[in-house]
Specification:
It comes from Savagea serpentis. The chain is an all-alpha fold. It is built from 4 helices and no strands.
């Protein structure tokens, strides 16, 4: 039996069960959940970096977005709060639309 030891989406047990396979799963504490969310974010970011097509990259971005929503919830906020903060930062500091790459800043 393969061992995974990783955070999975909520319907994965149901999907595995439908194949007739047995599995072992546990529910994490909030502290464990935060740790595993961070690990999963790294995993999905790596998959985004390694995506070979734009569609594959978009799929990985959707996974990252789902994880960001989960992380905001476990921290006591909603995805709407996260989006509000993102919008405030965009107004205050801008977004990343112009593809600007800072090389250096003169010291005083």
């Amino acid at each position: 039996m393969p061992t995974y030891k990783k955070l999975v989406r909520d319907r994965i047990p149901e999907i595995i069960e439908a194949t007739g396979k047995s599995f072992t799963i546990e529910t994490l504490t909030n502290e464990q959940y935060i740790i595993e969310l961070k690990r999963k974010l790294h995993e999905e970011l790596k998959e985004f970096e390694e995506a070979e097509t734009n569609l594959d990259a978009l799929e990985e971005l959707a996974d990252l977005l789902e994880l960001l929503h989960a992380a905001s919830r476990v921290l006591g906020f909603t995805p709407d709060h996260l989006e509000k903060i993102r919008q405030e930062k965009e107004i205050e500091r801008g977004a990343f639309h112009q593809k600007l790459f800072l090389i250096e800043v003169e010291d005083d």
